[in-house]
Amino acid sequence: MAGVISDHRTEHGIPHTVSCRAPGVILHSGRGSEYASRKSARVCRRLGVTRPMSRVGSCFDNSVSEAFNSVLKVEYVHRYTFRARTEARIGIATWITDFCKTRRPHSICGFKSPIDYENEYGAGLTGGLAAQEGLHRKDSTVRGD
Fold first, then answer.
1. Domain residues of the chain, as ranges?
2. Phi then psi dihedrals of residue 125, to 5 deg
3. How far is the CA of 82 from the CAs of 78, 102, 123, 133, 138, in angstroms?
4. Is the pLDDT of residue 1 over 50?
5. Where is the Integrase catalytic domain (predicted)?
6. How far is CA 131 from CA 89, 117, 143, in A?
7. What pLDDT score does 131 carry?
8. What are the phi and psi torsion angles at 112 (to 5°)?
9. Rounded distance between C-alpha atoms, residue 89 and residue 86, angstroms
């Protein structure tokens, strides 16, 4: 299913991803032209997205992406025959959003789905901030501020 890579991923994919995520998004990608371009850098900078990229030939900046692509191929792509590129795109997007992110347990997330992990992490941050706010109010009441 090789095809021409366009700026579509940069113009639409990155903003869409950011709109669905919590602040502090990290874009794990290869060094492909669409992600290493000036346009991509501007979009990421404008949206506050971190782009970890090391020098050419280093495998460490891309390991998360490579691991995900491997799982995608083993657990989904190689199990189906797609009649058209559009069918493959829709199927893969659906697998990612409806299964991989919401129900598939990930070892790095303590065997929780990424969405459950993010929700628990966010709740912990919010709870911690609320507790600090409560302590601050209690301290100011005691002092008579």
1. 101-145
2. -65, -45
3. 10, 24, 40, 53, 61
4. no
5. 48-114
6. 44, 21, 18
7. 53
8. -115, 165
9. 5
32 phi and psi angles, rounded to 5 deg: -60, 155
- Does the pLDDT at position 80 exceed 80? yes
Q: Which two tokens stand for residue 52?
A: 């970890």
- pLDDT at residue 95 is higher than 60: yes
- Residues with Cβ within 8 Å of residue 11, at least 6 apart in sequence: 39, 43
Alpha helices for the chain (secondary structure H): 8, 14-19, 33-36, 38-47, 63-75, 85-95, 114-143
Give the bridge partners for 124, in sequence order.
none
- Strand, helix or coil for residue 50: strand
Query: Does pLDDT of 71 surpass 60?
Result: yes
Q: What is the pTM of this model?
A: 0.51
Residue 11, amino acid: E
> How many CA atoms does the CB half-sphere of 10 hold within 13 Å?
20
Amino acid at 128: G
Spatial contact of 120 and 112, defined as CB atoms under 8 Å apart: yes
Q: What pLDDT band is residue 3 in, cutting at 50, 70 and 90?
A: very low
Per-residue pLDDT tens digits for 22-44: 667 777 666 666 666 788 788 88
